[in-house]
């Protein structure tokens, strides 16, 4: 049975802009965060593609991956994920093939089929909504482009062919779990915003996994929200930043990361609080002992090989400290 010592810890980041800050400062803060994670021995640092969302600065995902990889030494860097229906598979293969040439053996390509935005912005991206239905075929196309070079092919990814890029399928429902299992690919479930289906999706993936040339055993990541501080009370206080942002999402408002507040009662109704709590249903919040206990129960009850965390803490130093505390749980 796996223990916390055995389970790799990784991070998902959206380059969230704190209230009162700007994009340039946020990206520098993101790089410092990634460097700290690299020094601590965190396994992966992934960035998520979103578009036209005030407060989330990770829209040019491949560009940011290159910057993070350039400013770190050993941590794996990748996408959590690239929304494949927004892009031609050839372009994705060339971008990530180039990243792999620059940072060999350190690049992950996580793929999703959602738009990562609203319908109007989808049209601005020239997105064909029917492409989501062709997601399995486009994943196969991308696998071929990043796979062994074939001189007889009329269309080749250059760079891209013969790459070491690891392809992951991401999901918040059962569809990608089933597809990842059929293709023998690693799988990551978005428990940080879709907690209800986590158990079913992960079980479906493990039970239906078919070995592939690249993978003999299933490998699943569960992503979940983490707020870790020196005490339970401090962590509960810091968690109001992410709660406020979920409230903004529910209301269709900008998604800047606000400073924490003493109480959410004056900000949201009881019904809104229930919606926030459901959205953050897998959140792990508390001091070191509490978080250690919660994580141990999670890995005991869910078939996962790795945990990935969002870490939405407003203050930069407290955010870095949370990461240090997290890695200490392994000692």
What this model shows, in words?
- It comes from Bacterioplanoides pacificum.
- GO terms for molecular function: oxidoreductase activity.
- Keywords: Oxidoreductase.
- It is a single chain.
- By secondary structure, this protein is α/β, with parallel strands linked by helices.
- The chain has one domain: Alpha-Beta Barrel (TIM Barrel), CATH 3.20.20.
- Helix content is 41%, strand content 15%.
- The protein has twelve helices and nine strands.
- The chain has helices spanning 23-40, 61-70, 89-102, 119-124, 135-146, 175-183, 198-208, 232-238, 240-251, 270-279, 288-301, 316-328; strands at residues 9-13, 44-47, 76-83, 107-112, 166-171, 187-190, 220-228, 284-286, 306-310.
- Strands 1-2-3-4-5-6-7-9 form an eight-stranded parallel β-barrel, surrounded by seven helices.
- The protein is globular and about 65 Å long.
In short:
With 331 residues, the protein is an alpha/beta fold. The chain contains 12 helices and 9 strands. Helices cover 41% and strands 15% of the residues.
């Amino acid at each position: 049975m796996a223990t916390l010592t055995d389970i790799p810890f990784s991070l998902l980041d959206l380059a969230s802009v704190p209230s009162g800050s700007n994009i340039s400062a946020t990206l520098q803060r993101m790089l410092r965060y990634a460097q700290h994670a690299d020094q601590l021995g965190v396994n992966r640092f992934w960035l998520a593609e979103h578009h036209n969302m005030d407060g989330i600065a990770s829209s040019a995902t491949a560009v940011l991956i290159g910057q993070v990889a350039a400013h770190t030494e050993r941590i794996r860097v990748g996408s959590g994920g690239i929304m494949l229906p927004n892009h031609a598979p050839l372009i994705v293969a060339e971008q990530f093939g180039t990243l792999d040439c620059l940072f060999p053996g350190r690049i992950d390509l996580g793929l999703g089929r959602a738009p990562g935005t609203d319908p109007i912005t989808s049209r601005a991206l020239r997105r064909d909504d029917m492409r989501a239905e062709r997601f399995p075929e486009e994943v196969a196309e991308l696998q071929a482009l990043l796979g062994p070079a074939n001189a007889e092919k009329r269309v080749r990814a250059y760079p891209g062919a013969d790459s070491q890029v690891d392809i992951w399928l991401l999901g918040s429902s059962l569809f990608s779990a089933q597809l990842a299992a059929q293709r023998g690919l690693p799988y990551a479930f978005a428990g940080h915003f879709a907690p209800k289906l986590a158990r079913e999706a992960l079980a479906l993936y493990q039970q239906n996994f078919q070995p592939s040339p690249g993978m003999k055993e299933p490998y699943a990541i569960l992503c979940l929200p983490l707020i870790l501080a020196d005490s339970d009370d401090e962590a509960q206080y810091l968690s109001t930043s992410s709660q406020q942002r979920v409230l903004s999402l529910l209301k269709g408002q900008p998604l800047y990361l606000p400073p924490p507040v003493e109480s959410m009662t004056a900000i949201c109704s009881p019904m809104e609080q229930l919606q926030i709590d459901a959205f953050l249903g897998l959140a792990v919040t508390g001091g070191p002992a509490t978080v250690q206990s919660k994580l141990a129960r999670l890995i005991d009850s869910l078939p996962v090989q790795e945990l990935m965390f969002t870490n939405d803490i407003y203050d930069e130093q407290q955010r870095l400290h949370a990461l240090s505390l997290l890695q200490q749980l392994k000692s």
